[in-house]
Specification:
about 300 residues, about 70% helix, 11 helices, 4 strands, ABC transporter involved in vitamin B12 uptake, BtuC, two-stranded antiparallel ribbon, mainly alpha, globular, two-stranded antiparallel sheet
């Protein structure tokens, strides 16, 4: 494995990983606030990508950048509304029910959302209009598409913005308090139901933004829903209840997927055949190794039960 190959993989992996990190933060915030592992998160990513393309097309009478901005605004509002609706109509009646039942409901919810999207968009690959020129720039001497650079920069900016929101805003602090100790937060006047609703809305928005950024780069089809599981790999690696861990986990998954997965596909043969698609399973190998070596993740809280 040459140094140039590794350098290229790291640069591209960090660009992709920043988007994984953004999606993983939504995953983590929802888990920290509600203790629910949302298995429909990949469908939220897919929803954001498809809806943004459709909304941008609907504003086609405007100049392309303005149409894209309007389409993104509509998509984020719709994603937040979807998050609120899911929490109110589906998750709130399940409050206090066994955790496994709630997780299964999120899995079913993902299939419902996917089915609706199949009915509307038929699952075909769709692309955004040329918002960003299809040019290639060099980052640390590595050629990267300009779309990838802009997507990574947008993801990094949003990660910083979200961090500031949770650190300084009123509802960000309330969500952190509920995440740390729900009973104490409720005693101090924090509305847990409102916190849960905001957590679902935030997760939906983070997933939608990830779908938009990946859609700009790669186009949108149903394979994009698998990114939700890649975000889960990032969350498990970093720690289910750690936002910094989710960010680091996303970056690491992006780099490992690009470097290791790319190397295996290009240089390893099994029965004389190349390992096509190995890059797509790299994230799941990360999940297995993380659970075997450090089940609570790099920064997750290790819980010890004494009998």
């Amino acid at each position: 494995m040459s140094g140039q190959f590794v350098l290229e993989g790291v640069v591209v992996g960090l660009a992709v990983g920043s988007i994984y990190a953004l999606i993983a933060v939504g995953f983590t915030v929802l888990y920290k606030s509600t203790k629910i592992l949302n298995l429909a998160h990949g469908e939220l990513v897919l929803f954001g990508g498809y809806l943004a393309i459709a909304a941008t097309s609907a504003f086609g009478f405007l100049p392309t950048p303005a149409a894209f901005a309007a389409g993104v605004a509509v998509t984020l509002l719709a994603a937040a509304a979807l998050g609120f609706a899911v929490e109110r109509a589906v998750m709130r009646p399940l409050f206090g029910q066994p955790l496994l039942s709630v997780i299964i409901v999120t899995l079913a919810l993902g299939y419902v959302v996917r089915g609706i999207m199949v009915g509307i968009w038929s699952g075909e690959t769709r692309t955004f209009p040329p918002v960003i020129p299809a040019t290639v720039v060099r980052v640390a001497g590595v050629p990267v598409s300009l779309v990838g650079v802009w997507s990574a920069a947008a993801a990094a900016t949003l990660l910083v913005t979200f961090s500031l929101f949770f650190r300084y805003s009123r509802w960000g602090i309330a969500m952190r308090a509920a995440a740390n100790e729900q009973l104490t937060a409720s005693t101090l006047g924090v509305s847990l139901r409102r916190v849960f609703a905001y957590a679902w809305a935030f997760a939906a928005v983070a997933g939608a933004v990830g779908g938009i950024l990946l859609g700009l780069w790669l186009g949108v089809n149903f394979a994009l829903a698998a990114v939700g599981l890649k975000a889960l790999a990032a969350v498990i690696l970093g720690g289910l209840d750690s936002v910094p861990g989710a960010i680091l986990g996303g970056l690491l998954v992006g780099v490992v997927e690009t470097v290791l997965g790319g190397y295996m596909e290009a240089h390893v043969r099994v029965l004389g055949q190349p390992l096509h698609g190995f890059k797509e399973v790299t994230a799941y190998l990360v999940i297995l190794l993380a659970l075997m070596v450090r089940p609570h993740g790099l920064f997750g809280t290790e819980r010890i039960e004494r009998l």
